[in-house]
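1st attempt posting a full record on here, be nice pls
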Amino acid sequence: MFCEQCEQTASGQGCHQWGACGKSPETNSVQDLLVYCLQGLAPVAIAARSRGLDTHAADVFACETLFATMTNVNFSAPRFTPYIKQAIALREDLKTQIAAQADAPLSWSAIADYTPDFTDSLVLQGRDRSLEAIAKADGNVDIFALKLTTLYGLKGMAAYAFHALEMGYEDPAVYSFLHEALAALDRHDLSLNDWVALALKVGEVNFRVMELLDSGHTDTFGHPVPTSVPLEPRPGKAILVSGHDIPHLANVLEQTRDTGITVYTHGELLPAHGYPQLKQTYPHLYGHYGKAWQNQVHDFAKFPGAIVMTTNCLMPPHDHYSDKVFTIGPVGDRDLQHLGDNGDQPIDLSPAIAKAQALPGFPETVADLPQRSVTTGFARNAVLSVADQIIDAVKAGQIRHFFLVGGCDGAKPGRTYYTELVEQVPDDCVVMTLACGKFRFFDHEMGDIGGIPRLLDLGQCNDAYSAIQIAIALANAFEVGVNELPLSMILSWYEQKAIAVLLTLLHLGIQDIRLGPTLPAFMTPNVFALLSDTYKLKAITTPEADLAACLA
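the predicted structure (as tokens):
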């Protein structure tokens, strides 16, 4: 296998025998084959769109299936065979519609005509396609690195677009670019600068996608407000919902209404507690259980109820708790019960509810535990509602600097850097955070500055949109550029959503970003040097040295 799309790659260079995430070589190969088939669907979808044909089914399918190939989403190789067949079916159907309009038969590239042999091993065919992609790099490792950067950014962008679509928010221009970029991956006539521009275009379009997702969340569930979230459970039956998908969490809440079951969030769903419509409508949405995704083997084993996985961040389950974990949407594992895919009707969660009712739940004794809580919900509306107070505090010298410390958490050594850095941030500085990287320090008591909390949880990884809006608003208020603000971005990455967000920040011209805990294996020294020269992108060093540089 060849996989280097996440931060956890073996020896920091790539996984070649078995995925560090738990992905098998077989699953990796059929995922590669699916991506190859999506590249073949892309030029046909482009041609169909140019003729005014309806490509929506292919558009949505491309988003869903790219999402399914992301790290820690779907470990079930058999689930990808129907996806591959559907990719070919959608492609051939569009070809037929195009042929009905064309005066003469159209010729298609080899990739657009490729059809796997479904009577033979899809695993071996996927390996062949992966080797073919490497061979097509023509020895130019820098261009190959940028192709991978573009592909991985597209996967993250597609995942966000899929989330937005669940709430009815979409933009045809996003789908058009997705196919254009997928088609470009098969080209050999683009220069290094062309590939840099295409990667940054991923960031530009991802900004639009995050805007759509933000609108879907806020229009549906209200703008987040600061909300205290219990970290200790309460007695009774329980369901834990993990992942990123807030509409799926809402479906769990609706189907467990009046059942006596308490619903807890896990991982990236902590910020859901800040949405007022969820809290007001569903009082049984109670608290947060566990920390970041990589701790789920421990957290899930101890949780005395059912667990529903809604998006990426799944780890291959252990036998002693796999019978109580359920997956929905693109998420999957051969050892877990899959409850259904996204569609017009809500997914039936009755098996998970029955499992929660059969399990013991939390005992009465948990009521005697010392009660802890954290506060979430500091999205852009909440922060900007006190913008005047923040501006006055900066002008008065009460707030010296802002740090945005966030991104993905992970299991590899080196991530204690983020905890140590936040612990060393001076008392006259404010830390903003988002995504699961916050779990390194989310429960730290940091106090406030004149009533402004020194630790502000902005939300999920896609809420980088909120962070950007906050930065733009403050820059406008101070009549300076964003890069002139007393603001430092120190980010951690793990998977492809983080790559999409990083490309968005670079597209917006944000400079002096510090990235860690290690640089992507697919980013060559030359490509990193180019980004460093252009955007002053830096690798993290030590908390002490980086803090000193940021505050200099």
